[in-house]
């Protein structure tokens, strides 16, 4: 980018903008003011940068400062920052504010027309008619504001000397970022004051996800993903687990049923893996001792619920065990406590940000995860006066009740309930609701084939899997958990769609 | 597991083994010897452990030692190890060797019949007739061998006191691990000596992948995956990149063509993402500054080649850029040099292991990656007497030639060739062959729609993507690379199938 973008180039960019006509009429800025750029001695201090100048043609050597890196130490320095024009507030013909946002930080930029600063009234006008969310470069001097600001970088503001628009947003965005970032509490408060504030519905948010993603809480939620995954991998790698990749495209088997996505693979019936279960077990048979796997899981469910997605990120592990699935429990215990600790200590600001829009109480967990038998769980329910069938599976309501009673008695939301009847689900773990399930697996082909048949599976369709256990297979067990479910429960979000960048549900395949 | 497995229980396990009859006739071991278990005072020191005893019923408190952890310091100690019986060598009625393998380590176990050791001839017999690859527990005293051994744990062996079979393999495995682990050099040497050794073809290996995976080179190759990924993530996280997940299930667009897997999504035409390109760009539009993504990529290619898979692991990154894709090049440079260094320094043993079966020269790279313009590349070819069309794209042969010339002149296999004509492929990186491709992307909706149309894409099918750029989009660029391709080239493997745990090619969907 040269420091003097010619107005003619700006116009040619606008020529391209057939559906951006509202924005196009605003440039060159000076025109709206009844003057021309030629009459403005500071015309080179502002304007639209033509796309040709940002096409990897030259390196200017200039250095940009990140909005998030601005602090009081920078006061007095001239900086160059790039960000989105989140808010634009004209004060007078001679003064305006532009709040620039980059990543999770914002800074207030001040334009005051004066010959000394090299700022003309045309330039102030240019800034005030920028469309919101346009990408803008600002050069200016960092100063300490006289009063506290709304921007996240509250300590400093920028006294603008130059301002260039890098890429314009359309004049009227389909959703307003301010509306999308509003909390229930703000809405209620406004309503009580007789004021009606706009709120953006879940579906509308998802339709315009690229805007919705810019809200502080969405930025935080999706960055927490990274933190959980990072800790998940770090912990398991420290225990010598091997990260593996298992195929998502698998031969179609009779077990699939309605919940499986079917397709043709070079003419052969195939489907998308509903879990990496068979393959992580085969990896154990393949001599990998203990493995983990992070990858998409596909479930072709028809019903819309607040906690199911058709595509989600599975965190799976499988490991040799010597005698007992308690060996798996120990890994789950260490792993999840380390994840929770990491979030609590290292993601404070992100959790506060989420809390700002979606208030929640922090998840309670113990240093050493509580383990209760199914019987003990039932006993607690009975003592609390809940009627329950003796050896039946716990339904969601009963599960929640156990969760509540455990919280009261042991002060934890996270515990392991094990020794399930019928050994159908030998153990699982739940904070309030079940999130992790796991078990010891069958390691002999005979028993596997027998149980498969009992469950109505045509074992011929999974023969490669079953045969793997006849080539020498160690006893093993493992667990699986959905990343989105962990985020949802840790942050007590009311809808799993909030935890996925581009969620897939039965009705949603775009964007 | 109790310390005294009753022979009757062993029999009941074998009853289950309808198709394991060959193995079944061998237990209880004593029977084959014409004696009965009752006559053997050490009958409790060996036998098959019934599956009921390894069903998470009890925790014995015994402690297992890992084969890989055995060293001279353990000499004199009694240890309990679990592993696969990789080799079984009877010496006499009173003596036998069993080589136990676990993960990437092996140890030789010695059985010598003596009242003092509690070992009977029946027990020696039991060990010698175990099927290869059966999972075995051995308890014994660690000793220093008199002569050097073939096992990886060459410093020590185990004087067996007890041996139990945990899970039997079938008597005749479909492929022999020893054959699968053999190098070309061994085969040639044997042939020269007039001996014919079995070798296992690529397809047969993949059919019985759970056995094939146990070869030292496969163990090493797939663990190198983990190392590459770990460094990929670590480097990008250190640069504040955010790990994201993008949907694999996407609406079917007209650009798909033949190479796309099609399916129905709740009745709507959908397909599997051939790359995360559109979504990682939308993440940038969503305010994430710089993102990376590790996940499966699907390509429904029909032709079989040595370097293409229908499903592979994509390593993708996308980032805001200020002016020039050199900013992306800098990330690629730092990232790949750090990965190569990590492999060279921390994966020495694994690389040696691979080298043992598939010899290769280490990849050459520079501390600061060499950047050459396309013109300079062409010039080098011309000077070397290669005829080449002036501004045409480099074909594979010409690419390889540039690679060879660069290696001769600059002593590196890894360099960045940039400034491609027509800006079609503004730059890419190659060690010998192209492995990484990347570019600055278009950040305005108008130019995007224009270029899309020029490329024959019905832009209506990707309107959500294109519209994202009208809501305020910063200039950005990125790159993508296949994990399997990186492993293949770093280890100079001749077939990409060797780098995938369960590869998918046009003909292969199982196991």
UniProtKB/TrEMBL annotation, chains A, B:
<dbReference type="InterPro" id="IPR004523">
    <property type="entry name" value="Asp-tRNA_synthase_2"/>
</dbReference>
<dbReference type="InterPro" id="IPR004364">
    <property type="entry name" value="Aa-tRNA-synt_II"/>
</dbReference>
<keyword id="KW-0436">Ligase</keyword>
<dbReference type="GO" id="GO:0005829">
    <property type="term" value="C:cytosol"/>
</dbReference>
<dbReference type="InterPro" id="IPR012340">
    <property type="entry name" value="NA-bd_OB-fold"/>
</dbReference>
<feature type="domain" description="Aminoacyl-transfer RNA synthetases class-II family profile">
    <location>
        <begin position="222"/>
        <end position="511"/>
    </location>
</feature>
<keyword id="KW-0547">Nucleotide-binding</keyword>
<dbReference type="InterPro" id="IPR006195">
    <property type="entry name" value="aa-tRNA-synth_II"/>
</dbReference>
<dbReference type="InterPro" id="IPR045864">
    <property type="entry name" value="aa-tRNA-synth_II/BPL/LPL"/>
</dbReference>
<dbReference type="GO" id="GO:0004815">
    <property type="term" value="F:aspartate-tRNA ligase activity"/>
</dbReference>
<keyword id="KW-0067">ATP-binding</keyword>
<dbReference type="GO" id="GO:0005524">
    <property type="term" value="F:ATP binding"/>
</dbReference>
<keyword id="KW-0648">Protein biosynthesis</keyword>
<dbReference type="GO" id="GO:0006422">
    <property type="term" value="P:aspartyl-tRNA aminoacylation"/>
</dbReference>
<comment type="similarity">
    <text>Belongs to the class-II aminoacyl-tRNA synthetase family. Type 2 subfamily.</text>
</comment>
<keyword id="KW-0030">Aminoacyl-tRNA synthetase</keyword>
<dbReference type="InterPro" id="IPR002312">
    <property type="entry name" value="Asp/Asn-tRNA-synth_IIb"/>
</dbReference>
<dbReference type="Pfam" id="PF00152">
    <property type="entry name" value="tRNA-synt_2"/>
</dbReference>
<dbReference type="GO" id="GO:0003723">
    <property type="term" value="F:RNA binding"/>
</dbReference>
<protein>
    <recommendedName>
        <fullName>aspartate--tRNA ligase</fullName>
        <ecNumber>6.1.1.12</ecNumber>
    </recommendedName>
</protein>
<keyword id="KW-0963">Cytoplasm</keyword>
<dbReference type="GO" id="GO:0017101">
    <property type="term" value="C:aminoacyl-tRNA synthetase multienzyme complex"/>
</dbReference>
């Amino acid at each position: 980018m040269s420091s003097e973008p010619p107005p003619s180039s700006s116009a040619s960019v606008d020529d391209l903008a057939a559906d951006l006509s509202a924005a196009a009429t605003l440039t060159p800025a000076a025109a709206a003011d009844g003057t021309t750029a030629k009459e403005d001695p500071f015309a080179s201090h502002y304007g639209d940068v033509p796309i040709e100048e940002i096409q990897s043609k030259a390196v200017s050597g200039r250095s940009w400062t990140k909005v998030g890196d601005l602090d009081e130490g920078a006061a007095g320095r001239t900086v160059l920052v790039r960000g989105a024009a989140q808010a634009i507030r004209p004060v007078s013909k001679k003064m305006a504010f532009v709040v620039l946002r980059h990543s999770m930080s914002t800074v207030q930029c001040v334009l005051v027309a004066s010959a000394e600063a090299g700022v003309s009234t045309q330039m102030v006008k240019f800034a005030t008619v920028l469309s919101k969310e346009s990408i803008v470069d600002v050069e200016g001097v960092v100063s300490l504001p006289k009063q506290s600001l709304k921007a996240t970088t509250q300590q400093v503001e920028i006294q603008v000397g130059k301002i260039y628009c890098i890429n314009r947003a359309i004049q009227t965005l389909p959703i307003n970022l301010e509306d999308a970032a509003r909390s229930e509490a703000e809405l209620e408060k406004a309503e009580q004051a007789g004021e009606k504030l706009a709120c953006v519905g879940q579906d509308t948010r998802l339709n315009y996800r690229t805007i919705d993603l810019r809200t502080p809480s969405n930025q935080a939620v999706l960055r927490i993903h990274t933190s959980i995954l990072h800790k998940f991998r770090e912990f398991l790698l420290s225990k010598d687990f091997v990260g593996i990749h298992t195929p998502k495209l698998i031969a179609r088997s009779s077990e699939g049923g309605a919940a499986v996505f079917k397709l043709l693979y070079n003419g052969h019936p195939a489907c998308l893996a509903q879990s990496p279960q068979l393959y992580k077990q085969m990896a154990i048979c393949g001599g990998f001792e203990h493995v983990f796997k992070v990858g998409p899981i596909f479930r072709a469910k028809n019903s819309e619920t607040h906690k199911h997605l058709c595509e989600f990120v599975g965190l799976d592990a499988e490991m040799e065990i010597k005698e007992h699935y308690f060996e798996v429990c120990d890994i789950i215990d260490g792993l999840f406590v380390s994840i929770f600790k990491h979030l609590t200590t290292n993601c404070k600001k992100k959790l506060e940000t989420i809390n700002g829009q979606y208030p929640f109480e922090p998840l309670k967990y113990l240093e050493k995860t509580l383990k209760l038998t199914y019987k003990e769980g039932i006993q607690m329910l009975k003592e609390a006066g809940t009627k329950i069938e003796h050896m039946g599976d716990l339904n969601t309501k009963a599960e929640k009740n156990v969760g509540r009673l455990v919280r009261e008695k042991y002060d934890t939301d996270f515990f392991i309930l094990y020794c399930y009847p019928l050994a159908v689900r030998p153990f699982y773990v739940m904070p309030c609701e079940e999130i992790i399930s796991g078990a010891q697996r069958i390691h002999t082909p005979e028993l596997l084939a027998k149980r498969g048949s009992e469950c109505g599976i045509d074992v011929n369709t999974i023969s490669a899997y079953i045969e793997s256990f006849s080539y020498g297979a160690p006893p093993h067990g493992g667990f699986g958990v959905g990343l989105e479910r962990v985020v949802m429960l840790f942050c007590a979000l009311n809808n799993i769609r909030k935890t996925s960048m581009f969620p897939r549900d039965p009705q949603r395949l775009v964007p």
